[in-house]
Amino acid sequence: MKKRLRVSRVLLYVVLTAISIMFLLPFFYALYTSFLPLQYVDRIVSFDKFTINNYITLFTKFNVGRWYWNTFIMTLITVAGNVILDTMAGYALAKFRFRGRNIIFIIVLASMMVPFQLIITPMYIMIAKINWHNTIAGLTIPFLYSPIYIFMSRQFFITIPREIEEAATIDGLSKAKTFFKIILPISGSVIASIIILNFTTTWNAYLVPSTFVTDRDKFVLVVGLRTVNDMHFARPNLVMAGVVLTTLPVLLLFLRFQKHFVQGIATTGLKV
């Protein structure tokens, strides 16, 4: 029996390793190609042929530093807003008893089913009317909350024992202080899930930034690098350097929070 379990575990690890390699190969190809001169693209070369000229070209001939900064600010504001607002809304829907709570929750669920492509046109019209096009406000304020993260937060907070809140009330804490001082510090898994998912979505966003921003100096990284690709599609080494610059922050963030992320995904959706 033990031998059979050991063989099954080895086979499982082999399959998981093969799947991991399959998903990582595109990134390794991009990383490898980004260090090659153009004449060596799609060839196996020794390390002495590697060069960082592709990255130097991106930062000297294009406004990549500015695009990075714009993307960082947009992502930071959006992620912070979602962490604060979505967890507060999820906590209220999970723990507070008030008239219309179930209706609000149904509206949240229903809004998750509406394709974003259906609302981007009226959203653009509103952004244009208040002169928020080509601004960080236009890229962040409409996206400071998300129904999916409200749902995730609610499902997580339902699993927290009510005795914790009752003990905080006995100690004289208000509901707001209970949330910020007691509940949030023990909610690392759901917060990490929101950070990773929202960071990835915002950092890699293309549709909204390309629609709401036309000023080249205010481009975000993905939109700016798309213009590089359009201008230099015959230089895949330069394009792959841009791919690495886009992917690396997301990869590092996931590696930092992966333990909490897996736990958060596993614990949300346990109760309805």
General description of the model:
- The chain is an all-alpha fold and 272 residues long.
- The chain has one domain (52-267): MetI-like fold.
- The chain has 13 helices and no strands.
- It has helices at 2-34, 53-61, 64-95, 101-112, 120-129, 136-140, 147-158, 162-170, 175-183, 188-203, 207-212, 221-231, 236-267.
- Helix 3 (64-95) packs across helix 7 (147-158), helix 8 crosses helix 9 and helix 12 runs antiparallel to helix 13 (236-267).
- The chain is globular.
Level of helix content? over 70%
Structural class: mainly alpha
Identify the CATH class. Mainly Alpha
Strand content: under 5%
Q: What is the assembly state of the chains in this entry?
A: single chain
Low-confidence stretches: none
State the order of secondary-structure elements, H for helix, E for strand.
HHHHHHHHHHHHH
Total DSSP E strands: 0
* Shape label: globular
CATH superfamily: MetI-like
> Which sheet architecture does the biggest sheet show?
none
**CATH topology-level fold name:** MetI-like fold
Architecture (CATH level 2) name: Orthogonal Bundle
User: How many domains would you count in the coordinates?
Assistant: 1
Number of helices: 13
What is the CA-atom radius of gyration, in angstroms?
Answer: 23 Å
The end-to-end distance, rounded to whole angstroms, is 39 Å
Mean pLDDT: 86
